[in-house]
UniProtKB/TrEMBL annotation:
Binding site for FAD: K60, G124, D325, M331, L332, A333, H334
Protein name: Dihydrolipoyl dehydrogenase
The record's free-text note on cofactor binding: Binds 1 FAD per subunit.
Compartments it resides in: Cytoplasm
Origin species: Lysobacter daejeonensis GH1-9
Amino acid sequence: MSEQQNFDVVVIGGGPAGYHAAIRAAQLGLKTACIDAALGKDGKPALGGTCLRVGCIPSKALLDSSRQFWNMGHIFDQHGISFEKPAIDVKKMVARKDGIVKQFTGGIASLFKANKVAAFYGFGQLQPGNVVKVTQHDGSVVELKGTNVIIAAGSDSIELPFAKFDGECIVDNVGGLDFEAVPERLGVIGAGVIGLELGSVWNRLGAKVTILEALPGFLSAADAEVGKVSAREFKKQGLDIKLGAKVSKAEVKGKGKKKEVELTYTDAAGEQTLVVDKLLVAVGRRAATKGLLAEGTGVRVNERGQIEVDEHCHTGVDGVWAVGDCVRGPMLAHKGFEEGIAVAELIAGLPGHVNFDTIPWVIYTEPEIAWVGKTEEQLKAEGVPYKAGSFPFAAVGRAVAMAEPAGFVKVIAHAETDRVLGMHLVGANVSELVHEGVLTMEFSGSADDLARICHAHPSLSEAVHDAAMAVHKRAIHKAN
């Protein structure tokens, strides 16, 4: 073991939360190290965490590729564009995705060099006294002593005991990004973000996709109207989403190219079976804290495997912090970004804060789904008086001109103060439009404030403008 190295800040994990924390700490003049264990497809270290390597970025690459292919067969004819026999080269599509991932993982490595962040590649384990033991990929061990240690270990896919990942027939999000060909039949367990996004990718490319969701409602975390409209659009696209379907068994049968997975599930009609060629298990993620903490660190882990922290992401152990997917709160890359930066600034003596009430949620299906703040259902349950205004994209000139009129925007405001409490959207590019709601809420703005902001015409953002106007029944382009 080499001599112990000393740093002001040692970050465990080079994903969204970790690399933001490391770079911000270095910007603030703190001597910083960041440890990451991940390897890319080429066997070389690859910074960026699940999000960049096998999550947010690669899935968006495939979503965009599959959307282009889908549009060729379903939308282009409306524009007067025609051609013969569109085809998809899956290997080329996946290679493009891999190229984008490599570009961005390399980009983070370059940012580390530019900001003088010392990168260590291997598995980091926190020891007592703010020492991190790093077992590097070549088997050597180094010890890093941090005045402050920020744990940003991320999360792993949850594996079902009756559907173990084999990397071939039964896969998690990693395998779901790397099929060599379009499966004829794809089964998905879980109608959450991962299940819907990757299910959409392969559905657009020609797979018969069946999604089995154990809960009786669709997108229960979202506004009820959002869930209803989204489900209708997905059904039009051919996604078969079965609700209240509890899977109890997944058995791989056959050999070679004839392998298939037989699923057993129970719904309102009783026990059912489904046979598919590939099975994607997307039932959620858990904090990646196994083996992370040596005995005696004093850092506490709850029953879900999450590191316990206060509102400032401090663990209660002097100089030890935790951020991102391995702590409470939504497992979202941008939530991790903000926590990592906030902790770095707190360490440097600056104010650092994350407003959980204004964290946006996005599902990058077609149409996209996005929201921020409270739903109508939540406000009713809490007894909060509110007013809501909505506006359909079918009445927005830009959306119709794009041949993407599905969906709507809803603005919810307090009935007495008019302060915006939530915004809920389904439609084209709503992953961008939701930030009008985020910004308005962050500045404690009202629906009237949003309604009085001039929005360009023609633009998709006019739906936000008219929805805000509809809160007070003064929308121009719909009957109030």
